[in-house]
Specification:
The chain is an alpha+beta fold. Helices cover 17% and strands 37% of the residues.
Length: 268
């Protein structure tokens, strides 16, 4: 789809900053200053209801809104020099990771975290393409279909743990995509779903001849993300070696079993 070219005024644009709604100004300022190193440069109101925070080239506005309910979409995008370092720092401080660190097909290393109010911040680092790296395929060349009782819960799980991107979302299905794989989550028809009971915690569905397999950068990071999204990966002592990969099984919030593979770094 091509963007339509229109005439615009010959005016130079200045900065543009996101405004996040928060339920407690003091706690939110503490989160962004203590954990992310922002500095408060402006406040307004008595009591304070609006704050501007800055760090380097980033600017963030916080606006008090009692009873604020966070969106399920990302509300801000933060560019950094090293996404992996920021990711590890936030994890070590107990910040909720919504989507684990991944190298996306559009040339960025990125992840998503949530602040105290659940506002989702997308963090990204531009990757320099390797000279011998083959071009990313325009379409996924392998895929799978998974039926789910709770469509949003299962699609959020695989997006958050494996790092899939949402290609399309409809009332009865969600299409998740990566560079090489497409995973379609289909909602089980209501007349059938009402007869299916999901235990808490879920019981693994081991009596199946098929297991989904995904390649990831870090099984450890995925293990932490799975636990936060109501799934589970086997503990470290139950990982095993398969060829050039470390392998670990787990299950999603409805008990579907999957496997993650992390390539073992070889050292000369």
């Amino acid at each position: 789809m091509r963007s339509r070219v229109v005439n615009t005024p010959d005016i130079r644009f200045g900065r543009m900053a996101p405004t996040l709604s928060v339920s407690d100004i003091d706690q939110s300022v503490g989160f962004y200053t203590r954990i992310l190193g922002f500095t408060k440069v402006f406040e307004n109101g008595s009591p304070v209801g609006f704050v501007i925070l800055k760090r380097d080239g980033a600017e963030l506005h916080l606006s008090l809104r009692k009873g604020h309910a966070a969106s399920s979409q990302n509300v801000a995008h933060l560019m950094v020099q090293d996404a992996a370092v920021v990711y590890e720092h936030l994890e070590s401080r107990g910040v909720r990771i919504v989507k684990t660190l991944r190298d996306a097909t559009f040339g960025m290393r990125c992840f998503v975290f949530a602040d105290l109010d659940g506002n989702r911040i997308d963090v990204g680092e531009v990757l320099e393409p390797a000279c011998n790296e083959p071009p990313a395929p325009s379409d996924s060349n392998a895929g799978a279909v998974l039926y789910a009782k709770n469509l949003s819960r299962i699609s959020d799980f695989y997006a958050g743990v494996v790092g899939f991107e949402v290609g399309r979302s409809e009332a009865d299905h969600v299409v998740l995509e990566s560079r090489a794989v497409q995973l379609v989550i289909l909602s089980i028809p209501q007349d059938l779903a009402s007869s299916i009971a999901i235990a808490a915690p879920p019981v693994r569905r081991t009596e199946t001849p098929i297991k989904l397999v995904f390649h990831v950068r870090s099984i450890s990071a995925c293990r932490a993300a799975a636990a936060k999204l109501d799934g589970e990966l086997n503990p470290v002592e139950r990982e095993w070696r398969f060829g050039e990969f470390t392998v670990c099984d787990g299950h999603d919030p409805e008990g579907n079993v999957f496997q993650l593979r992390e390539k073992v770094e070889s050292h000369p």
